[in-house]
C-alpha cells in the first residue's frame, strides 16, 4: 500500500476502532526507578529496572533526572557526573560535557536537552557543549516540555513558570512550590507533588488535590500512557511507588530498593521525537517503536493542537484533525512532508521529514503537533500502538 493510500484509509481505521472494545495500550510493565541522595548516614545511588514488580540494578550512578534519548532506545541520566547514556543492559556511556549537578532536564525540539542549572536555562548539544538560553531564572526543581506552547514549564522556588522556547517568562501558572512536575499528553494538565500531596494544575493555574495517599514527600512522578486513558506513577522518599488514575484513585503500590529521593521514568516512551536537520525549518520526525519491526506506521500532523484528540476506544490519538492533517495524510503536501507512512525497519524505526526551508522565516512561531501510530491486523481495530504527541515551534 502506498503512503497516500494508507493515509486515506486512516479515517476508516479510526471508525473501526471506535466501534471496537479495544484493550489498553499493549505496553509491557517497564519502569526505571532512579536513586540519588543521602540519608542520615549513607548515600544511595542507583538506577533500577522494574519489570512485573521485580527490581534489577542497572547502574550505581547518582542521578538527579532521567529522560529518554531522542533515539528512544537509550536513557539519559544527569547527575554530579554530568550526563550518562544508559542502555537496557545497564552499560553507560559518559558525556561529561558541562556538569549539571542536581539540575532537572527535559527534551529540546532540536533533539538535544535543556537543563535548568541554577539561574540558567541551557541547551546541551549532544550532551557535550552547553548554550545558555536565559539567565536570571529562579532555582528549578523540575522542568518539562509544554505541549501547549512548545516552551517549558518550570517548577521553581517562586512557583510553576511557563517559559517560551528561549526561556522568556510567559506567565506564572501558580505561586505554589513543588518537588516534581509532569504533563498529561491527553488533556495537557500538569501534575506535581510536594511533601504530602499530588496536585493537578490546569492551564488557568487552578490547582486541585489529586491524592494525599503517598505517605511522604513525592520525589518522582511520571505519566504512564500504557494504562488506557493514562495513569500517574508517584514515588515517595522511601522508595514506594504508587499508581493513580488521573482523578486520584489508587490502583497499585510497589516497593522498590530506591530509598532516598527516588525518581520514576518509563523507558522507550519517545516513540516520536523531532530533530533538527542542519538548517532552520528542516526537521526530522524520528519514529521508534521497539519490538514492532516491519509493521506499518503513520505520522499525522496538526496545526490546531493535541487535545482533546481522537478517542480510540480506551485510548486517545493525541491530535486535533485539521486541514494540515488531511493534506499530510493524503500526500498533497508533496516534498514538504515525506516518509509519513510506510514500514518500520527491523528495529522498529523510521523517519519522516518536514522541509519548510522555502518559506524562510514567514512561518516563525507556528506550532505543529505530531502523533504516530503502528498497525497490526490482529490488534483491535487494526491499530497496534499510539505514540505520545510532540510539538514543534517553527523558526
Structure characteristics:
395 residues, Neuraminidase, five-stranded antiparallel sheet, mainly beta, Immunoglobulin-like
Notes on the protein architecture:
The protein is mainly beta and about 400 residues long. The protein has 2 domains: about 5-25 and about 270-395, Immunoglobulin-like, CATH 2.60.40.10; about 30-265, TolB, C-terminal domain (Neuraminidase). The protein is built from 2 helices and 35 strands. The chain has helices at about 5-20, 325-330, and strands at about 30-40, 45-50, 55-60, 65-70, 75-80, 80-85, 90-95, 105, 115, 120-125, 130-135, 140-145, 150-155, 160-165, 170-175, 180-185, 190-195, 200, 205-210, 220-225, 230-235, 240-245, 250-255, 265, 270-275, 280-290, 295-300, 310, 315, 335-340, 340-345, 350-355, 365-375, 385, 390-395. The strands form 9 sheets. Strands 27, 31, 33, 34 and 35 form a 5-stranded antiparallel beta sheet that branches. Strands 3-2-1-24 form a 4-stranded antiparallel beta sheet, with no helix packed on it. A 4-stranded antiparallel beta sheet has the order 4-5-6-7, with no helix packed on it. A hairpin with a 5-residue loop joins strand 18 (about 200) and strand 19. Helix 1 (about 5-20) crosses helix 2 (about 325-330). The protein starts with a helix and ends with a strand. Residues about 1-30 and about 40-45 have low confidence and may be disordered.
Amino acid at each position: 500500500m502506498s503512503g497516500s493510500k494508507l493515509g486515506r484509509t486512516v479515517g476508516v481505521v479510526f471508525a473501526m476502532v471506535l466501534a471496537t472494545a479495544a484493550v489498553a495500550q499493549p505496553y509491557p510493565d517497564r519502569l526505571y526507578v532512579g536513586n540519588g541522595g543521602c540519608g542520615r548516614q549513607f548515600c544511595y545511588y542507583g538506577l533500577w529496572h522494574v519489570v512485573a514488580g521485580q527490581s534489577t540494578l542497572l547502574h550505581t550512578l547518582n542521578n538527579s533526572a532521567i529522560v529518554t534519548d531522542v533515539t528512544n532506545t537509550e536513557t539519559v541520566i544527569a547527575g554530579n557526573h554530568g550526563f550518562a547514556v544508559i542502555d537496557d543492559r545497564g552499560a553507560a556511556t559518559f558525556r561529561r560535557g558541562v556538569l549539571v549537578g542536581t539540575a532537572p532536564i527535559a527534551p529540546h525540539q532540536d533533539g538535544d536537552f535543556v537543563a535548568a542549572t541554577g539561574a540558567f536555562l541551557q541547551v546541551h548539544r549532544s550532551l557535550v557543549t552547553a548554550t545558555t538560553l536565559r539567565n536570571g531564572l529562579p532555582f528549578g526543581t523540575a522542568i518539562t516540555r509544554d505541549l501547549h506552547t512548545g516552551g517549558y514549564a518550570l517548577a521553581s522556588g517562586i512557583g510553576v513558570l511557563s517559559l517560551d522556547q528561549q526561556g522568556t517568562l510567559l506567565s506564572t501558572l501558580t505561586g505554589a512550590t513543588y518537588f516534581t512536575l509532569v504533563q498529561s499528553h491527553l488533556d495537557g494538565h500538569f501534575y506535581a507533588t510536594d511533601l504530602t500531596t499530588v496536585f493537578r494544575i490546569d492551564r488557568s493555574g487552578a490547582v486541585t488535590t489529586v491524592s494525599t495517599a503517598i505517605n511522604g514527600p513525592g520525589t518522582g512522578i511520571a505519566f504512564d500512557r500504557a494504562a488506557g486513558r493514562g495513569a500517574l506513577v508517584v514515588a515517595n522518599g522511601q522508595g514506594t511507588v504508587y499508581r493513580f488514575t488521573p482523578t486520584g484513585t489508587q490502583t497499585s503500590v510497589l516497593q522498590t530498593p530506591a530509598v532516598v529521593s527516588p525518581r520514576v521514568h518509563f523507558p522507550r516512551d519517545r516513540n516520536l521525537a523531532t530533530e533538527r536537520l542542519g538548517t532552520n525549518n528542516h526537521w526530522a520526525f524520528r519514529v521508534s517503536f521497539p519490538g514492532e519491526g516491519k509493521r506499518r506506521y503513520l505520522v499525522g500532523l496538526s496545526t490546531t493542537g493535541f487535545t482533546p484528540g481522537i478517542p480510540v476506544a480506551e485510548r486517545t490519538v493525541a491530535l486535533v484533525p485539521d486541514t494540515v492533517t488531511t493534506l499530510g495524510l493524503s500526500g498533497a503536501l508533496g516534498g514538504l512532508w515525506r516518509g509519513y507512512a510506510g514500514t518500520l525497519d527491523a528495529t522498529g524505526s523510521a523517519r519522516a521529514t518536514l522541509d519548510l526551508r522555502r518559506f524562510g522565516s514567514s512561518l516563525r512561531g507556528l506550532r505543529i503537533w505530531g502523533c504516530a501510530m503502528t498497525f497490526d491486523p490482529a490488534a483491535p481495530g487494526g491499530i497496534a500502538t499510539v505514540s505520545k504527541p510532540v510539538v514543534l515551534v517553527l523558526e
